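Exercise 3.2. Students should predict the tertiary structure of the chain below and write it as structure tokens, then compare their answer with the key that follows.

Predict this chain's 3D structure.
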Amino acid sequence: MMQNLSLIADFGATFSRLALYADGEIFSQVTLKSRQFQSPLEVIEHYLSITAKNAPHAPDHYLIAIASPLVEDAVQLTNNHWGFSQKALREALKKRGGTLTLINDFKALAYSLLKLEPANLRLIGTSEADLAKSSNSSRNAPIIKALIGPGSGFGTATLVVPTSSISPHSEPVIIASEGGHSVFAPFDQEEIALLSLLSNTPSLLKRKRTPYPIILEDLLSGTHGVKRLIDAMALLYDKNPTFNSPETLIHSALTKKEPFARVVLTRYSLLLATIASNIALTTGARDGIYIGGGLVPRFADFLANSPFRERFEENLTVNNYLKTIPTYLIEHANPTLIGLQYLADRLNQPSQ
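Answer key:
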């Protein structure tokens, strides 16, 4: 009989991705539209009803990643109508014979860095050979990787893996942070102009007063930031673009080859590079900066051929330091589920 069956789920504003996981294998993976359901419990019950024939018994564990802060018992899914109590969901699943692990989706994504295969990671702007020449590997230092990525906001997290020489039995640690709310700092003259325009034009940010601090999410979040960047750059360039969303921007830049769309997408890539560089310097993530989320992989080739890496390394005093830090784009269809697999494996390990 299959032991330690886990239901793993990534609940987002638009889609809910669920699967069963046991003995190192994932199966019965299904993607559902979140808005067709009233709560996470309703999604779970529907999923179990359509996959019952594939499961030998009810799940022992439910590991759920959700696009929301999990500070209080009451949870409100970002950009979705779901609101629920963590305690009530835990009790409902307990009646089904299972335990619940609820985790922020970006933190779960960070755990995926422990299981993703090299084929799922695209090195941006440098080569494996160059990295080998300047390897940061030291058996006496922990492995430190940082994760950034646009979604409904802009997520940041750091993964620290202690080495056996430091702490033989320590588990990897994810340090979740709110880097998306840090203040935007311009790098060049155009970004200085963007900052001035955004700070003094409340209509661009839907704010009632100026001046107002501009944060990273204001320009980089997939939900609202890209639209604001388009609007602000249209004013700077005196353009009336045909695109007004991440999807239409990418289509206009990559398929239609519209010059202004490519200018905007290049600027987005440069802003992303500056953030990646700053995160590398502030976290000491010498083992890599990883870009996650569903937005950036849609223009992966464009990013790879943009000045992203040049901007990442462009720092007069620590240029050589930054050159040794790899930058990766996560190219896996459901990396959050990979992170949940790692957590399920850890949950099922026999206690030492």
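Discussion points: The mean pLDDT is 90. The chain has two domains: 6-111+334-347, 118-331.
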